[in-house]
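Entry 0007
Protein: Alpha-1,2-mannosidase, putative
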Amino acid sequence: MRRPVTVAIAATLLASTLTTMSAAADLSSADFVDPLIGSAGDGNTYPGATAPFGMLAWSPTSTRDDQTSTGAANGYQYDTTRLRGFSLTHVNGAGCNPGAAGDVPILPFAGDVTSSPTADTTDAVYASNFSHADEAATPGRYRLGLQNGVTTDVAATERTAIGTLAYPQGKPASLLFRTSNSLNGSEDAETHIDAANRRVTGSVLTGAFCGRRANGGVNNRKSYYRLYFTAQFDQAVTGTGTWKDATLQPGGTDQTGGEGYATGKDRAGRGSGGYVTFAPGSKVTMRIAISYVSLEGAERNLRAEQPKKSTVDSVAGGTKKAWNAELDRVNVAGGSANQRITFTTALYHGLQQPNLVSDVDGQYLGMDGKPHRVERGQDAQYSNFSGWDRYRAQVQFLALVEPRVAGNFAQSLYNYAKQNDGVWDRWVHVNGATHVMTGDPSAATIATFYAMGVRNFDYRGAFDTLYRQATVSRPEGLQDAGCPGQCVSQRPNLTQYVTSHYAPNDVCHCWGGAAETLEDAVADSAIGHFAELLGRTREAAEMRARGAYWRNVFNPDTGYAQARNVDGSWVTPFDPASDRGFAQGSAAAYTWMVPQDVSGLADAMGGKPAAATRLDGFFHDASGNWQLKGGGPLKYDPTNEPDIHAPWLYNELGQPWKTQETVRQLVSSVYGTGPSGLPGNDDLGTMSAWYVFAALGIYPRTPGTGELLLSSPLFPSAVIRPAGGAPIRITTSGSGKYIQDVRRDGRPQRDWKVDASFLRGGILAFRLSETPTAWGSVT
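Output (structure tokens):
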């Protein structure tokens, strides 16, 4: 399959044959997006067709000779060029294999179906190789030519997709619906074929977020949503069939059966699906829609989002327009073509979530498993909240550029909490409480939204339940179900925590006592800020005081955060490179995770100069060379959320020029174009949001506030146009990566931070220098 002119232009840009943006002035923002960035290594992105915040995402499910796995997180890995279908749902950058979703893989197959596809446990027959030379990915559209001779061209709306499937002449034309084969398996599935009306419908009952995880055991292998789909064709269906496990039923039209949630040989050979055939050489247009509520909901979504005269081109054009509207909320000028591609793709990845889960009529599936409607004043229900990751950068990015979506998302999370006995889960997938990771990121998220000016949600009701979650113990707080990794309690052993003023590692019922303490201290500080803004002075004082509990896991003898036992003793033996007492990170990384009290942390380390010197060693090797990726557990890890804010700490440590050089080094050497352009799993836009902020020269200071830290912008100029808000302009003059001076709205800005009032609009004018300066070192 040969790529059209617009894709060839994008490929030319990616090859860096354009050295300035002037040669590409006629291109829109969407033309600078490369959805393949992050699809290699551990980026865990997917390249398929989706709309901004879309429910549906049409993208490959790859295979490495095991039908119960993809060999990749979230369905796609650039170096795996064999697929067993195109799935309807995906998650951007979740950090586990196989990840989540990947519902209803659909395989165009140029051959007769002569055996059960489920019996093909190694995907030797019912799968196809492909070449990246025959792949074209742009925002809202995905085209792929398969080695089996079928070419596919699919465009997506928010809840639907339309595609042309062109079969080779002289070969049978089959289309397989592997209904039960979600990434993590399924409890049940059903497939129904209506040949006379050229339609296939069905559903899959699934969930099991990160079902292969070792930590969490089998606690996460459970169902929490049913995805319904309807697919309609413009060509006559000439044959049908279904299968269940190893049994093929030619001519069949109805089938049920799930796979279970085991892996490998314990699941292989189980499952159900169906297929339809068309005349050899057919070019079939398929229209498909999904719903988490009902088949009727999917059909309403299809009617609403795809007029009968829609074509792949018209839908792709409409979705590209929608993407341009979102991407144009942050426009940059100047810089190289590669910098523009890296930046715009980061915007794209940051705007893929949260994801719509409500139908066009406002119905959605609640966390109680029942249908609900959106609240009065709420536009839509959103989900997919990787809280532990996103509260550090992505939620601030969302609040900055799409405050109304942020408010709808805040209301969505509150709705789920009300349906979940008042509990805010830390990692919500669709309507499921997965409990993944540690801490209470919902508190930091909602408090941050409010501090950044988001108001279109029930913030008083949300505050009351978040405060209650942080202060009232629950029975599950003494359970170890799901630990480590997916501990069921959102505030483990809370009674002991508020007594000890830290989470004792030996009785915390959490992933790690030191990590839990640091996370809860950030969350409580954020609740304190939230309370203060609401005029709740008693709660503000209480929770701000709890924000200082980090001090109780800082060991002055070792100089690191360290887990403690309930009797007050330190957990030994201690190794700063170890993750004992921590969650997916070492003591060396977590020690810096005190964004709410950087000056206090510096004092504990012996003062700001001493802390800055120590931070130098976090980013460099013994010879002073940069060590920004792959340096091991004692060094900075740009893929590790607890320390992604560390480059910005130099500001408060009195050496802001080091923030400027460290951030610029990361932007220039760790991020880039091509499939390996992300440093690690995108974590639902977190890594991408970090890059966007870094390239703009601003970064959120503390969860629960609207303050922004400053660094040197990458581009000569940028304009942020928040939806419904006043523009924010950032300009630079001079060259270099160091700040000579800054003016805010024409007045000298001598501080290394700006307060939340800047979010209401203004201008930051930077003058840069080739050498370090003293700007911002004294406030």
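Curator remark: Residues 1-23 have pLDDT under 50 and may be disordered. The chain is about 25% helix and 20% strand.
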